[in-house]
Amino acid sequence: xxxxxxxxxxLVAESETQQAREKRRExxxxxxxxxxxxxxxxxxxxxxxDRIQPADTDAALPPGLSLTGYDAVLLTGSPLHLYEETPxxxxxxxxxxxxxxxxxxxxxxxxxxQVATVAAGGSVRPNARRLEASFARRxxxxxxxxxxxxxxxxxxxxxxxxxxxxxVEALPPGATLxxxxxxxxVQAAEIRFDGGVxxxxxxxxxIGLDEVAGALRRQADSLVEAGLARDGEDVEAYAWQVDxxxxxxxxxxxxxxxxxDEQVTDERLRQTEMRNFVEALGRxxxxxxxx
Length: 291
What we know:
- This protein has helices at about 20-30, 30-45, 85-100, 110-120, 145, 210-220, 220-225, 230-245, 250-260, 260-265, 265-270, 270-285, and strands at about 10-15, 50, 70-75, 105-110, 125, 135-140, 160, 165-170, 175-180, 190-195, 195-200.
- The protein has about 290 residues and is an alpha/beta fold.
């Protein structure tokens, strides 16, 4: 059984390619891994945090450290398509298999959930219904999800930041479905595989509303192609409102226009899953893996 003692040590696995990292920095000023590091330092100010880019050819842990030396590994979102056989996807999936084998607890959002799914024997596909962009609506916990510590504090239905072109097609054996919605059947899951445990969500509890707006602008062409917007000006108008709500979360007029409540506008509530994961690490018991 694994126990952790302060200060916690986290490894953020940033599966974006270098090109995607730079594109995101140009858009919102930080890569997905840098967003994760910022949240972790705010949740656990004394934590030690390292970062690795498992999709890169030269990815390596800091000298003298192994996966078992971390209290948790956190996998970020990424534009990688896990159903494609590329050097980047192979390296990323191999990394996740090593995380499972190490017994180190892991958490992931969006592509992070998809990476863990494929690593454990499940499958991923392009979105079957339609692109889920800006916010995942009416996410509903399953019976298991209502009792699971990952979703503690979430109501019977809630919205969350999300933008993804792929989804989990089939969870691997040993996985537990925790939440879904009308567009995406697997919105949250626990995966146990090869001695390890992973908690993951398809949405993005870690990102700010400015990052939602930035993602919309980066994917404007896809949104128009999918019929979610008439043109780039349409996307910009929507992103402008999201940016405005980021600047002032108390603006009820913008929250009303966007159809959002405190589960999204309140930063603490928006980050529920990451907070629950970190708190579970401190307690130890919910993340323990039977030896």
